[in-house]
Amino acid sequence: MMVIRTFEGEDMQDVLRKVKKELGTEAVILGSQTRKRTGASRESVVVTAGLPGIDPPWLGKTPKGDPASSSDEETRQLREEVATLRETVLKFEKEWGDGAREKKREDVRSVGFLTEGADEEAIAGPKEEMDVASGLLERAGVRGDAREDLLKALRSVSYSPAEFQDPERTGSLLQYLVARQIRVSGSFLDRSPKKGALVILLAGPTGVGKTTTIAKLAAGFTLKHAKKVRLINLDTYRIGALEQLRIYGDLMGLPVDVAGTPDRFLEILGAGSVSPEDVILVDTAGMSSRETGKLRPFIDGALSQSHLDVNVSLVLAASAKTDDLGDALERFMPLSLRSLILTKLDETTCLGSVYPFLSRAPVPVSYVTTGQRVPDDIEVAHPGKLSQWILGGFR
User: Fold this and answer.
1) Residue 123 sits in the same domain as residue 50
2) At what angle do helices 239-252 and 12-23 cross, to 10 degrees?
3) Where is each SRP54-type proteins GTP-binding domain found (predicted)?
4) CA within 20 to 30 Å of 374's CA: 91, 223, 248, 277, which one?
């Protein structure tokens, strides 16, 4: 049964402390709002938090047991999602876990390995054998060379013609092949504090959701990991961008600094101003891929500081065209990128067009965002889940 409580405090940080104290670090924020208090000069923050029987999917954790029975609608949905995922895993283990299948598992480690230098006639096979797989990829929006590479890889597996005609089995294998081609980096917090204060700088085109993503990360790091978080804004061109970040900072009780120059940026990040346990989230101006040089002095300055662990991540919208994604990555790569964040998965019903980009990206995916709710709609990227979304559509 999900335990649900409502908490009220002077600011978001105050409320989050109360949530953690009563419900622990596994609590999930279900909603938040501000409320005008009678006789008070400022509004209070009201948060509804819950403690589910299992870890919610957005935490990126593997459930450790069956969820408790509950009539709560959200818990029921979570239970169904976990059951479906468990069923998929068990099915996969049954098909691929025994010794008789070991060679097949090795054979499909890499699509590139299977197709590079392969004899076209040897792996072609009867065209009708690939009709089911081809149809699955077409409906998912996976086309072009990426589609052909997957079909070649599929033909290289020692399946019988009857097995190739089984949509469920073929879909399961395609999902595995797709997942093998997607690189992920894990959470930003999966690191040693010995590297120094963690500076996470989000760069990317205009309108991809950088500021909202920073708010989600900040809230999650504060609530789930009790981190000391600071926000820095480098976007001095748009007043609205700074105001939005200040609003998030005020709600969460986090300091917000503005750095209009590289020198000011380094001053804020000085060795005497930050500690190795700190997390500093940096928002930047939305810019075209031809303007990336403006960020270079800021990033170079931070990278030169031994007390800082700098993570520059490129934020891209899943709804963008494949060519646009590739162009943006190519132009932002000189900024010493360490990861990608894929946003707005909820704004597209077809993620298949993203697969060619992800399968060839030289940097891994760290997080994905799936809606507007802060901090709920963000999760650590997982290749299996991305593969499910790519082939089955985002739900």
Assistant:
1) no
2) 40
3) 197-392
4) 277
CATH (domain of 246): 3.40.50.300
Mean pLDDT on 203-212: 92
Residue 245 counted as domain residue:
yes
Q: Is the peptide bond before 334 cis (omega within 30 degrees of 0)?
A: no
- More confident position, 4 or 293: 293
Q: Which runs of consecutive H residues, i.e. helices, occur in 126-253?
A: 131-140, 144-155, 161-164, 167-180, 210-225, 239-252
Residue 44 is predicted with a pLDDT of: 80
Q: Which residues pair with residue 48 across a beta bridge?
A: 6, 31
- Pair 339, 361 in one domain: yes
Task: Write out the two tokens for 238.
Answer: 């748009």
Distance in angstroms (rounded) separating the CA atoms of residues 44 and 195? 37
Percent above pLDDT 70 for the chain: 70
Residue 361 one-letter amino acid: A
- Whole-structure pTM value: 0.68
Say whether pLDDT at 263 is over 90: yes
258 with 242: CB under 8 angstroms?
yes
Choose among 267, 240, 242: nearest CA to 256. Answer: 242
Residue in the block written with tokens 């090795």: 106
CA 160 to mean position of chain CA atoms: 37
Strand, helix or coil at 179? helix
Nearest Cα to Cα of residue 270 among 296, 300, 249, 301: 301
Predicted confidence (pLDDT) per residue in 161-177, tens digit: 666 677 777 778 888 88
Domain containing residue 314: 193-381
Q: Which DSSP symbol is given to 156?
A: T
How many structural domains are present in the chain? Answer: 3
Q: Residues with Cβ < 8 Å from 369, sequence gap 6 or more? A: 209, 212, 213, 216, 341, 342, 343, 344, 345, 377, 378
Q: How many residues does the structure list for the chain? A: 395
